[in-house]
């Protein structure tokens, strides 16, 4: 788990994500997923560098099936940006930091 990415569960999702003042980038991840491990350091860097603009959290789908099902997440990693409690952008698969920052710039 990345040092600056908060782990969120089914129980804490509403408080940490839906009620957040800042937009939230949610990483739907799994321990068995190699691309998830590849993107973890990218998400950690974004969490540090963009902390003033966006909160970065992760949801382990193996332990939090309610949240995964609620947002129709089928592939890992899936990244969903929430703003004002609503999903505003969804991205599937690992990506380079520069590409992720460009995609986030559209919604943050």
TrEMBL record:
Residues the record marks as active site: 33, 36
Keyword Disulfide bond listed: yes
Gene3D superfamilies, sorted: Glutaredoxin
One cellular component term from this protein's GO annotations in UniProt: cytosol
Annotated site location: Contributes to redox potential value: 34-35
Entry-linked InterPro entries: Thioredoxin, Thioredoxin-like_sf, Thioredoxin_CS, Thioredoxin_domain
Annotated Thioredoxin domain residues: 1-108
Keywords annotated in UniProt: Disulfide bond, Electron transport, Redox-active center, Transport
Residues of the site described as Deprotonates C-terminal active site Cys: 27
Cysteine pairs bridged by disulfides in the record: 33-36
Identification of the protein by name: Thioredoxin
Species name: Kitasatospora kifunensis
């Amino acid at each position: 788990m990345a040092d600056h990415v908060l782990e969120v569960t089914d129980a804490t999702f509403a408080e940490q994500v839906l009620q957040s003042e800042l937009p939230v980038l949610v990483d739907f991840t799994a321990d068995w997923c190699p691309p998830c491990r590849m993107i973890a350091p990218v998400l950690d860097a974004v969490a540090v560098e963009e902390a003033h603009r966006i909160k970065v959290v992760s949801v382990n789908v193996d332990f939090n099936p309610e949240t995964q099902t609620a947002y129709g997440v089928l592939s890992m990693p899936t990244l969903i940006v929430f703003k004002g409690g609503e999903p505003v952008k969804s991205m599937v698969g690992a990506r380079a930091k520069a590409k992720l920052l460009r995609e986030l710039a559209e919604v943050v």
